[in-house]
From TrEMBL:
Belongs to the UPF0065 (bug) family. The lineage of its organism: Bacteria, Pseudomonadati, Pseudomonadota, Gammaproteobacteria, Oceanospirillales. It comes from the Bacteria. This is Uncharacterized protein. PANTHER family: BLR1237 PROTEIN (PTHR42928:SF5), TRICARBOXYLATE-BINDING PROTEIN (PTHR42928). InterPro entries: BUG, Bug_dom1.
């Protein structure tokens, strides 16, 4: 009897241990790992434009501080083309593991690649971590072009078919504003020789070098070519301190014209929405790293020296702003087709 009870007891203990082990294993499979060593290798920061533009300068400026906060290198890669559609597709097709961060001027380029570029993605396919740099658009002529105000430029486009050359970044707010101006003034779109570029740096170089007569582009990123420009209008309801230019509808008053004041650029960082869904703890680490970097005095001083924005609005507000931008541009997207 004693031997039988001992054997039974031994069997029961073994059964309990086996069952407990199986339960623990099952639980560990069902729950995400508590400890995540992310990031354990370098991150790739993909820029939706070529080198030299505002988004590229922002990414390269921020990559160092973000790297320091995360404790791993952050490599910057430029993938320009098709109004950021090339970069967007790339980011959406790499693993959703948090090792790829998208740096771009999301509004209006991402919006317009969806509305006019037949993109196969939506604004909701991305999760926007932070928009740190907001900008108004500037319409400015090359100082040697002879154009001193916006009405004279528009009348030249009306009267000198194909002779006036303008520069814009493909799908930008500046691009749409030029189309809107011609539409409201009753000027055929084909009258303007409009050259589109993949980066702000290229468009600015074109107007500074006299390859085009005027540019419609973000104002803050244009400080470096100020000496080559005659400002014609700022796309705003009021004057701004940085540029001696009339608000656009004030500039158009002599022509009895008025246009919608389009929201300018919103630059910042994002990941895929699937990455946030699968790895919320990694999303939080990246968000915290960007927020901490922007909170540093040395980073703010460097951003200010380079005339870049550096605010923290956070994921919730950034996603709201992106959807609001989409709704506004959807109304006028037909002009870019």
């Amino acid at each position: 009897m004693l031997n039988t009870s001992s054997a039974s007891l031994s069997f029961n203990i073994k059964s309990i241990l086996v069952g407990a082990t199986a339960a623990i294993a099952s639980l560990s499979m069902a729950l995400p790992a508590v400890a995540d060593d992310f990031p354990s290798r370098p991150l790739n920061m993909v820029v939706g434009f070529g080198t030299g533009g505002s988004a590229d300068r922002m990414a390269r400026m921020m990559s160092g501080p973000i790297s320091e906060e995360l404790g791993v290198p952050v490599q910057v890669t430029n993938r320009p083309g098709a109004g950021t559609q090339v970069a967007s597709n790339y980011v959406l097709n790499v693993p959703d593991d948090g090792y790829t961060v998208y740096a771009s001027t999301f509004a209006p380029y991402l919006t317009n690649s969806i509305l006019t570029g037949d993109a196969e993605f939506s604004v909701d396919d991305f999760s926007y971590i932070n928009f740190q740099w907001f900008d108004l658009d500037l319409i400015a002529a090359n100082k040697d072009s002879g154009y001193e105000d916006l009405p004279s430029l528009l009348e030249a486009i009306r009267e000198e078919e194909g002779q006036v050359r303008g520069a814009v970044v493909q799908g930008s707010a500046g691009h749409l504003m030029v189309r809107l101006l011609l539409d409201e003034a009753g000027i055929p779109q084909d009258n303007l020789n409009l050259v589109t570029y993949n980066s702000g740096g290229e468009a600015r170089s074109a107007v500074a070098g006299g390859q085009v007569d005027f540019v419609s582009i973000s104002a803050q990123g244009s400080e470096g070519i100020r000496e080559f420009l005659t400002p014609l209008a700022i796309v705003s309801d009021e004057r701004i301190e940085q540029w001696d230019a009339l608000p656009i509808n004030e500039a158009l008053a002599p022509m009895n014209l008025e246009v919608p004041v389009l929201q300018g650029s919103m630059r910042g960082f994002a990941v895929t929405s699937e990455m946030e869904r699968q790895h919320p703890e990694r999303f939080e680490k990246i968000s915290s790293a960007i927020q901490s970097a922007l909170a540093r005095k040395d980073v703010q001083e460097q951003l200010e020296r380079n005339e870049m924005g550096g605010v923290w609005v956070g994921p919730e507000r950034s996603n709201e702003l992106m959807r609001e931008n989409y709704q506004v541009f959807e109304k006028y997207a037909h002009l870019l087709n």
